[in-house]
Task: inverse folding
């Protein structure tokens, strides 16, 4: 009898189906790998088990009995612990406090029992103490730790639950090799204790090093389960891709189709910084260069670094043959570099302000205008908005009155008044509807045909395969493969994204 079983579990957010049919069986004493591409539904499935997301349909069985996981507390009461991909740590509390946070020991029903807390936390700190690195201790505040150390704290927090069922959603993404090896030693010990564990990872070498069975989710549905000993990486990737045409999309080659001579606009060499290392590429006039791979592999960090919004520790960026050392986005903008983020709430819209003010700020910055007269730019603003088929009442209406897709169109339109040489697109279609996506990509292709150089990072494979002339696949902060011509297939994209970094 499986320790944990999910049958026909589904979840939708309005018209967006996050999980269509999730099936999963976890045995006691096994590490069960869950794998799928970006947005396939694997994290949603885990959150349903953890009680942070309620399913629309389906059944969850624990030890053969149906259970209703009504929330995180109910999940913990049932003996389920989880490591979240998005860390859930209290930044201003200590390592020890975070480890014990879900079940803080108290005395007299009110006060924290510090002696018990320190004893309990010390057990888990000792597991990693020789690989955690300098500055890591039980009394260190979490906000003083490096990214890998914070991830270790989240792992310790999950282990401290002592739950019979443990779920780890990409727990090794920020860890070094020694830390991963120690974590795997701990998982093997937990298997001997008959714990049932789910392990999500994008690293194929890790999957085959620690897994007993692997379940593949594709497009919101469970499509197959295999024993690790009876399969191989190529078979797993084929199951992720499905029975699809392996031919590359019919997009033209940029140099031959769009230009007679290849004029390099942007050249990057040896670029390194937080989250990426030794990145090098060129973007020609009229070319759309794609950045592929799973989330958080350095793609966004590279784009932000070029734009002056991220740190660079080594390397060189050349724009039209001259060195670009943008210390701030202002420097990059004035040199003709544009950046559009998929996180419009953080990096895009000016909340509460009129549409006209959201369209015109780049024009004022590039032209060093000191007096803001938006009315003088109405015609230019309207032309930019109309190029994207933006739906709005008047330019004086607040940006918040628009749908998410139309807000993103406004963010993009601000760069069209004064055309840049290089357009950096950082997952620009996140959270917008299909119609808005079609308008955006029609414009992107038109801008490329008119001579703009474009770098497109997208977490959706189809967007890259249908629009990029070349695709650089990122894995672990490095480029592992370049896909061109007939090599631009979903299979090759997945294979490069999941192979060992």
Result:
């Amino acid at each position: 009898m499986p320790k944990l079983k999910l049958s026909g579990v589904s979840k939708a957010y309005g018209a967006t189906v996050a999980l269509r049919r999730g099936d999963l069986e976890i045995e006691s004493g096994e590490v069960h790998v869950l794998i799928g591409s970006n947005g396939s539904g694997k994290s949603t499935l885990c959150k349903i088990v953890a009680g942070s997301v309620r399913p629309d349909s389906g059944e969850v069985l624990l030890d053969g009995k149906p259970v209703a996981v009504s929330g995180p507390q109910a999940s913990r009461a049932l003996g389920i612990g989880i490591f979240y991909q998005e860390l859930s740590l209290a930044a201003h509390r200590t390592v020890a406090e975070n480890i014990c946070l879900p079940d803080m020991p108290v005395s007299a029903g009110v006060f924290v029992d510090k002696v018990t807390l320190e004893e309990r936390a010390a057990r888990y700190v000792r597991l990693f103490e020789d690989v955690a690195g300098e500055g890591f201790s039980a009394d260190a505040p979490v906000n003083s730790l490096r990214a890998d150390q914070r991830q270790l704290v989240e792992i310790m927090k999950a282990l401290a639950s002592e739950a019979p069922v443990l779920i780890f959603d990409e727990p090794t993404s920020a860890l070094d090799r020694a830390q991963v090896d120690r974590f795997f030693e701990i998982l093997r010990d937990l298997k001997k204790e008959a714990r049932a564990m789910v392990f999500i990872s994008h690293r194929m070498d890790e999957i085959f090093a620690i897994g007993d069975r692997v379940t593949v989710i594709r497009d919101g549905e469970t499509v197959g389960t295999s024993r690790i000993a009876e399969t191989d990486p190529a078979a797993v990737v084929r199951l992720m891709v499905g029975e699809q045409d392996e031919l590359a999309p019919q997009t033209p080659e940029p140099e031959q189709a769009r230009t007679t001579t290849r004029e390099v606009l942007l050249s990057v060499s040896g670029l390194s910084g937080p989250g990426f290392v030794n990145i090098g590429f060129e973007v020609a006039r009229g070319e759309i260069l794609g950045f592929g791979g799973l989330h958080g592999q350095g793609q966004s960090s590279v784009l932000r670094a070029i734009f002056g919004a991220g740190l660079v520790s080594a390397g060189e960026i050349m724009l039209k043959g001259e060195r670009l050392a943008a210390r701030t986005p202002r420097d990059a903008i004035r040199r003709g570099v544009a950046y559009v983020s998929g996180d419009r709430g953080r990096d895009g819209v000016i909340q509460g302000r009129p549409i006209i003010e959201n369209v015109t700020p780049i024009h004022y910055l590039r032209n060093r205008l000191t007096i803001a007269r938006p009315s003088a730019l109405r015609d230019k603003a309207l032309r930019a908005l109309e190029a994207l088929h933006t739906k709005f009442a008047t330019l004086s209406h607040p940006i918040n009155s628009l749908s998410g897709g139309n807000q993103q169109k406004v963010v993009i339109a601000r760069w069209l008044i004064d055309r840049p040489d290089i357009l950096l697109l950082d997952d620009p279609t996140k959270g917008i509807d299909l119609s808005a996506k079609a308008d955006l990509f029609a414009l992107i292709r038109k801008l490329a045909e008119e001579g703009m150089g474009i770098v497109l990072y997208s977490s959706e494979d189809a967007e890259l395969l249908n629009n990029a002339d070349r695709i650089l696949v990122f894995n672990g902060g490095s480029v592992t493969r370049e896909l061109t011509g007939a090599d631009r297939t979903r299979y090759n994209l997945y294979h490069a994204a999941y192979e060992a970094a």
Summary: Confidence is low (pLDDT under 50) at residues 245-260. The radius of gyration is 25 Å.
